[in-house]
Design brief:
heterodimer; A: alpha/beta; Rossmann fold; nine-stranded mixed β-sheet; two-stranded antiparallel ribbon; globular; B: about 600 residues; Butyryl-Coa Dehydrogenase, subunit A, domain 1; Butyryl-CoA Dehydrogenase, subunit A, domain 2; 17 helices; 11 strands; binds flavin-adenine dinucleotide
């Protein structure tokens, strides 16, 4: 079995993001960038499948700037066998390469590489779209198991436990399929130094979007990016009547 | 609860923009060292520090080590963290590939040490001492000793210690009493008591490799009569597995001010079996090899504490609302302004920032030169780099560890009363930082090393390795309008440093007490001038970035503004120190001991 894992370069989750002064996006220069945490879980899962003898090859793919090679190297340090960078200078968080464009790029790569499984993050923590996996599944006509918290593979039958609002749901899919990961699927390992060094020597191909026949012109327009409204301090109320009054007249929610 | 985020952007700025560290790839053995490999190591290493080591820092301090019947247990979580660290290969980051190491530059190890010490200084001492043992064995061990011990130290399955101090001597190691009696084979029986031995006993590794200073029966008196021995806790079998227990035991552990999670042990050697490392009576030389690397490492403890204290002081100062700004309300939507508006709070934070970033540049520069001194194909360049490292090592050790305590204190002060309360974690930094001024040669001894050994060596050859490039930099940049403000301040500082150097050389020759009396103030003066040089280099790098329009403008502008603060509000201390140096030994030596 061959597994394709998309990994995205995003602002590290520890960084307190700042909105650019012209409100077109967030400040990315001199900001720590990392692999999207959900994607790291996807890489970990794919590598575990390989280690368990259930997969033969894990290919990491990223769409992004030249520097996104760093994230591919990280994926390879965890254990992916090789990497592909679809290089673009368009922004990949906002007002640039949109989920549909990413899904189309991935479809072109799936056609080329013919994997049996795509394991990907359920969303990226920069724009939080949560769309790409679903769109890719539609484009390919493959089954999808989203928000996976457990994955079992037996031949071409795939059992996915999903985290849904009401609890856990279990699905059985047939490969080829798309899996999107949730936070509890696994705890990614820390890359080991020797693996970091080995990753340097693994194959990393860089291709242009045009080679895949996809175009990244945006279909959405970013009107404005601004910081969320500051949270107001809480307030203690004396009794239920006052609460209802405030909910009705101040918060206007009932 | 404090926070720690590896300062990767600041580290990369120094590595790539200021020092051009990828020049290391030109050195034999470092061909693979590229900017992205360094960054990758930095990111992954930083993750281990902030996610594995940092979360057990406060709890490790509160719990401390446990001692029972000669056995030491480290605080909860330390064993698991150590395993993750060792299995990740981090013990061998710059270890020799011939013995399983990763062969990365000393510079990368220096970077890693900084982050480890920010995250958990007590933890860092366990692998840190193994490195000291590794260095000594790598330089002076026989092939057999190297094959036996180095792979284990690199894997981290065995750890190392440095057994120098005895109850009656710490600074003056010529006085040691521990004896080594030759056996019929090539081994020795070691008997004596060592105290204050860091990581002397613990539960992290299957064996502990003690490097012990002792005297042979025919040893001359004083430092010319000490020899170095390797004494494993368990005698290794031929196949490298651990065998019989050796006659070395931990008698007790100390209750101490800080680094509670690192065991400080009394070690009793009772006819323990050991083997000579290097030549008889030449232990001091071997010890200095251990010490030099270790001194840079201790300097990094100071720097690591500065960084983490600063991060937390800064966060708190942006959050804590207290009083209004003197020049009018800054946060009208809040009941008071965040304390970062107040000049005196800014003074503390800017000092922390200027020292941390300047100290980072200075120590990484030293690390880079250490690599060049070990690997450059041209002997002259190797020698020059070696000279500079020898000169800067006592400065890095003493200044950065003095600053560790001072900056931790200033950042604690930003917290007001909360800084004094344990759960905020700031008081731990003050307590942890304090020891770094004492061990590995007290800072007083570092100052003596600078004026006594380093200054005179080769008729001032070592000093010229600093003065010449500094002078050259000034000449090259004094006409540059953007740089003048900084270069002039630095040039004045340098001129005074040259003056006090000449003064000490002159007076010190006639009366050594003059050199001793000047030493600590001179070291501080030197450190401040060296930091001024580093800030000039940083301004230059930042201006180049601003001109190119690359990167975050605010980031680079903050470098220039911090440099300005340093030149105007920190460098003047060098003038004061200069005056103290010039004052000479008279008033220090005049008062009779009985009259105190
Ligand atoms: C927590 C901890 C961990 C330690 N870890 C280790 C370890 O792993 N291995 C090890 O071997 N040791 C270790 N030590 C010991 C440490 O290195 C010594 O304490 C240190 O070298 C100072 O020696 P001393 O305590 O005997 O002080 P002394 O040598 O008695 O010095 C007392 C004071 O006199 C000053 N002084 C002495 N001689 C001179 C001079 N000629 N000129 C000017 N001033 C002078 C010193 O600077 C100091 O201020 C540790 C100590 C502590 C507290």
């Amino acid at each position: 079995m061959k597994i394709l894992v998309p990994v995205k370069r995003v602002v590290d989750y520890n960084v307190k993001v700042r909105v650019k002064s012209d409100q077109t996006g967030v400040e990315l220069a001199n900001v720590k960038m990392s692999v999207n945490p959900f994607d790291e879980i996807a890489v970990e899962e794919a590598v575990r499948l390989k280690e368990a003898g259930k997969a033969d090859e894990v290919i990491a793919v990223s769409i992004g700037p030249e520097k996104a090679q760093e994230q591919l190297r990280t994926a390879m340090a965890i254990g992916a066998d090789r990497g592909i960078l679809v290089k673009t200078d368009d922004p990949i968080d906002l007002g640039g390469v949109e989920p549909l464009a990413v899904a189309k790029t991935l479809k072109a790569l799936v056609d080329k590489e013919s994997p049996d499984l795509v394991i990907m993050g359920k969303q990226s923590i920069d724009d939080d779209s949560n769309q790409t996996g679903q769109m890719l599944s539609a484009l390919l006509g493959w089954s999808q198991g989203t928000f996976a918290s457990e994955l079992e593979i037996d031949g071409d039958s795939i059992k996915v436990t999903r985290e849904v609002d009401g609890g856990l749901e279990t699905l059985e899919l047939k490969a080829p399929a798309i899996i999107t990961t949730d936070l509890r699927l696994n705890e990614p390992r820390y890359a080991k130094l020797p693996d970091i060094m080995k990753a340097k020597k693994k194959q990393l191909d860089i291709i242009e979007p045009s080679e895949l026949g996809v175009d990244y012109s945006p279909r959405l327009e970013i009107v404005k990016v601004s910081e969320p409204a500051k949270r107001e301090g809480g307030e203690k109320v004396e009794n239920v009547d006052e609460l209802i009054d405030k909910l009705k007249n101040e918060a206007k929610v009932i | 609860m404090p926070v720690y985020n590896p300062p990767s952007e600041n580290i990369k700025f120094i590595l790539h923009d200021v020092l051009n560290a990828s020049q290391l790839s030109e050195l034999p053995g470092y061909e693979e060292v590229s900017e992205d490999l360094m960054d990758q190591i930095l990111e992954e290493g930083g993750k281990i520090c902030s996610e594995v080591l940092f979360p057990i820092n406060l709890s490790g301090d509160q719990e401390g080590c446990h001692y029972e019947n000669g056995v030491v247990r480290t605080p909860e979580g330390f064993k698991e963290a150590y395993d993750t660290f060792a299995e990740g290969g981090w013990c061998g980051l710059s270890g020799d590939p011939e013995y399983g190491g990763m062969g990365m530059p000393v510079l990368m190890n220096t970077v890693m040490q900084e982050m480890i010490c920010s995250a958990n200084m007590s933890f860092g001492m366990y692998p840190g001492l193994s490195q000291g043992a590794y260095e000594a064995l790598h330089h002076f061990g026989t092939d057999e000793q190297k094959e036996l011990y180095l792979p284990k130290l690199i894997e981290g399955t065995w750890s190392g210690t440095m057994n120098l101090t005895e109850p009656h001597c710490g600074t003056d190691l010529g006085l040691i009493k521990t004896k080594a009696i030759p056996n019929d084979d090539d081994s020795f029986q070691i008997t004596g008591t060592k105290i204050f031995i860091s990581a002397g006993e613990h539960d992290l590794t299957e064996n502990i490799v003690h490097l012990v200073l002792a005297k042979l029966p025919d040893a001359p008196d004083g430092v010319k009569g000490i020899s170095l021995f390797v004494v494993p806790k368990f005698l290794p079998n031929d196949d490298g597995s651990v065998g019989e227990r050796n006659g070395v035991r931990c008698g007790s552990i100390e209750h101490k001010m800080g680094i509670h999670a690192n065991s400080t042990c009394v070690m009793n050697f009772d006819d323990a079996k050991g083997w000579l490392v290097g030549e008889p009576h030449k232990g001091l030389k071997a010890m200095f090899v251990m010490m030099n690397a270790a001194r840079l490492g201790v300097g990094m403890q100071g720097l690591g504490i500065c960084e983490v204290a600063y991060q937390n002081g800064l966060d708190y100062a942006k959050d804590r609302l207290q009083m209004r700004s003197l020049t009018g309300v800054k946060a009208p939507d809040k009941p008071a302004d965040p304390i970062i508006v107040h000049p005196d709070v800014r003074r503390m934070l800017l000092k922390a920032k200027a020292v941390t970033e300047g100290g980072r540049a200075l120590s990484y520069w030293t690390g880079l030169k250490l690599d060049i001194s070990q690997r450059h194909p041209d002997e002259t360049i190797r020698q020059e780099a070696d000279d500079l490292v020898a000169l800067l090592t006592p400065i890095v050790k003493a200044y950065l560890t003095d600053m560790g305590t001072e900056i931790a204190n200033e950042c604690l002060q930003c917290y007001g009363g909360h800084g004094y309360i344990a759960e905020w974690g700031m008081e731990q930094y003050v307590r942890d930082a304090r020891i770094a001024q004492i061990y590995e040669g007290t800072n007083g001894i570092q100052a003596l090393d600078l004026v006594g050994r380093k200054m005179g060596q080769g008729y001032g050859r070592l000093l010229r390795r600093f003065f010449h490039p500094a002078q050259q930099f000034i000449e090259d940049h004094q006409a540059d309008e953007n740089m003048q403000e900084f270069v002039f301040a630095f040039a004045k500082g340098l001129a005074k440093l040259q003056q006090s150097t000449a003064m000490i050389a002159q007076k010190g020759l006639k009366n050594p007490d003059e050199a001793g009396a000047a030493s600590s103030d001179y070291l501080r003066q030197f450190a401040l001038v060296a930091l001024a040089y580093m800030w000039c280099l940083m301004v230059k790098a930042a201006q180049a970035k601003l001109e190119s329009g690359e990167g975050d403008k605010e980031f680079y502008e903050s470098k220039i503004k911090t440099a300005r603060f340093f030149m105007q509000r920190m460098l003047p201390e060098a003038d004061g120190r200069f005056k103290m140096v010039l004052a000479g030994a008279g008033s220090l030596m005049d008062l009779d001991a009985d009259a105190f």
